[in-house]
Structure formats: structure tokens, C-alpha cells
Amino acid sequence: MVRDTMSERLDAGRALRAAAPHALLGTVRDHLAAVYGATSVRLYLTDYGGTVLSPCDDSSGDEDAPLLPISGSAEGRALGSQERREQQVPHGDAIDHHLPVTVRGDRIGILTVRLPGDRSTPAVLDELRQVVDQLGHEILVAERDTDIYQRVRRVSRLTLAAEMQWQLLPARACTAAQYAIGAQLEPAYAVHGDNFDWASDGDELTLTVTNGMGQGVDASLLTHLAVSALRNARRAGVSLADQAALADQAVYGLYQGALHVSTLLMRVDLATGRMEIIDAGSPQMWRLRGKSVERIELDRQLPLGMFEESHYAPESLTVMPGDRLFFVSDGVYDAPSPRGGTYVESALARALHATRLLPAALVPGAVLRDVAEYRAAETLDDALVLCFDWFGDGHD
Question: How many Cβ atoms are within 10 Å of 126's Cβ, its own excluded?
Fold first, then answer.
């Protein structure tokens, strides 16, 4: 009997779309068992800190299943390389296939499928890749209607401020033909004022890096207002300067200058690499071009909400294919060492150069781990790193 692989893939997609939001794993498990003879299907999701893979189960989580370290496990190596990995199962011919679950560059987790040895053919594995891609998209859709997948990502409880910040974020990574983005907040479970945002309409990409004043929920509320105001203006189709001015008015209107928001606001023309940038506060911009790392000095303008009806003027910069841009908050560059000195004075350029071979999605976590070691602390003050790789128009 000749298998109709196209029909089987369509069946998997239809089944996932028809499944209840909380039942995606069970649906995939049933499909892979029936079509490919899979004897085990396990889903692991990346936690908020990006350090462990947490097991997911349809029935509100398998609390007895162990967390897997991203550094040092076969599943973690598959996530990092974005290539499937195989492990021979002891006492038999079955093979565990660790398959990255990734959506537009956002590394959601790993699906581990155990197949009999004679079913582990290249053709079957290519088909599994299609099923995994469908699963990743459906998880993102399902998160609108169930808390299961977000609950799995938490290895400890988020503070209320962190909950507000994570719900405000677009993703932690994104890839397109012209660019790749990776970003991370720390401390992941207690972050409050730092934030990042991006959006692309096919012709241009808008990036923002935000650092609200204060601590806890107050800082999160301030940042939430600023980011929402920037999004509202961006979606109205106004200029970059008007986006900054409207967000400035929104923040000043509520806080009357008592609190303000430091923001870097950027728009990239995806056909040319030309950038418009407004530096309204403390986040810094660095560039890696070839082997050279340098800070890009920008015209400093007023933070959003400091004074009534501030005016903003963008400046221009052109990125070249192969450029890597870094955006860091003061929690990174001003991080102190117990021996004296700040991270920007002693270690930032070295860390950015040392991570040059990593994909953009992995760079922020690596830099933030280096900052933590520099501070000789397990956790950081509010800190953000965003990495932006520019490939240029027509990149394959």
C-alpha cells in the first residue's frame, strides 16, 4: 500500500486546528502513533529564563517529569542548533528524535518522538518536521484560550510586575529574510520596567527598547502605558517623530512629569537598510561590524513624559549586510563589579565580540549570563539585551 504523505500532513493540520486548545499534545500523540507507529511523544517548552525545558502534558502538567537543562541535554542541544537530534533508546532498536518547535525564529521548545528503528527514515523525519511546525503555530494560537502552555513555561512564580511585562512582549526572537532578532529580560521572573517591542509590515520594521522608572508594579504600569501608546500611534500610521510625541503626551498626561520612560525608537527600511532613530533616554546602541565593536553615539533627546509637548527629531543611520546591532538597558551597561567599575567599562565590548558566532536568538541570554558573572550575582537588576542582525534585502 502506497502512503499518501500529503494527505497525512493535511490530516495532522486539520486535527490540530480542530483540537481543543488544551489538547494539542494529545492530538499530535494520537496522530503520530497511528501514522508512524510512535510509541512515545513528549513536549518540552522553554522556560521564561531560557535555561530549562519544562515538560508539558495535556492534563495541567506532569509534575513528576524532570526539568531538562538547555545546556547539557540532548534536547537542549537540538534547541540550540535548531537541528533534530537522535538518541538510541537502551535495550531495543527504538530511537528518540528531538525536534525543535520554532515559529518564525521564536524557539518555543522541543517535541521528542520515539519511533521504531525501521520507521526512522529521512522521509518520515521530514514529515515529522511539518507536523512540528504546525504544532508550534497552533500552540501560539491556543495561548489565547488556555493557560496550560504559559503555566508550563514557569519554573517558579512570576511577580505581578513580570506577568505584566511578559504579556506585553511580542516574542523573544523573530527571523525574516532580511533580519533576525533575539531579546531577553532579566530577572525573568521578577522584571519590572524594561521592555522591547517590534513589528514589521513587509516594507519596514519598527523596534523599540524601553526602560521605565521605578520598581515593581509601578514601573510595569508606566512601561505598559508607554508601549501601548507607541503601538497605538504606530498602528495609526504616523511618522516616527509623531509616535514618540504621542507617547510622550500620554505619559505626561497621566504622571505630569513625575515619572518618565527612557526609550530607543527605530524604524528600518527593509529594502535599503536605512534607519530612523530617536534616542529618548538611557538604552544604549552598539554595533558589531566585522571584528569591530563600537558604541553608536546618538543625539540624546528627552525621555517620554518628562515635559509637556516635547518634540522629537529622528536621525539617520544605514546598516550594512552583516552588521549586528545591540541594544542594552542601564541594568546591563551600568552593572557594577564587586572589584569596582561598571560592565560597560570592563566587559561589554568583549562579551559582544565573544558572542559574534551565535545566532541572534541566543546572544541576549549569553550576554546576560556574562553580566551576572561580572556582578558575582545569581540575578540581575532589571536588565535587557536585544540583538538585531541585518542580512540585507534578498537574503536567503
Answer: 11
pLDDT digits (tens, 9 = 90+) for 92-138: 899 999 999 999 999 999 999 999 999 999 999 999 999 999 999 99
> Tens of pLDDT along 275-329?
999 999 989 999 999 999 999 999 999 999 999 989 999 999 999 999 999 999 9
Alpha carbon distance 148, 134 (integer Å): 18
Strands 95-103 and 106-115: antiparallel
Residue 202: the pLDDT is: 86
What's the distance, Cα to Cα, between the start and end of the chain in Å? 38
| Structural domain that includes position 147 | 5-153
Q: Is residue 395 part of a domain?
A: no
Mean pLDDT value of segment 153-164: 94
H or E stretch including 36? Answer: helix 24-36
**pLDDT band with cut points at 50, 70 and 90 for residue 150:** very high
> Burial of 300 by CB count in 10 Å (0-12 exposed, 13-18 middle, 19+ buried)?
exposed
Per-residue pLDDT at 1 exceeds 60: no
pTM, 2 dp: 0.92
Please tell me whether residues 75 and 211 are part of one structural domain.
no
Question: What is the average per-residue pLDDT within 65-90?
Answer: 94
H/E run at residue 284: strand 284-289
Whichever domain contains 311, its CATH number is 3.60.40.10
Listing DSSP states for 79-109 in one string gives HHHTS-EEEEPSSSS-EEEEEEEEETTEEEE
Q: What angle do CA 143, 148, 152 make, to 5 degrees?
A: 110
Are 371 and 380 spatial neighbours (Cβ–Cβ below 8 Å)?
yes
Q: How many domains does the chain have?
A: 2
CB crowding 18-40: b at 16 or more within 10 Å, else e: ebebbbbbebbbebbeebbebee
* Cβ pair 109, 68 in contact under 8 A: no
210 and 61 in a common domain: no
Whether residue 324 sits in one domain with residue 192: yes
| 176 in the same domain as 200 | yes
Last residue of a domain, one of 153, 179, 196: 153
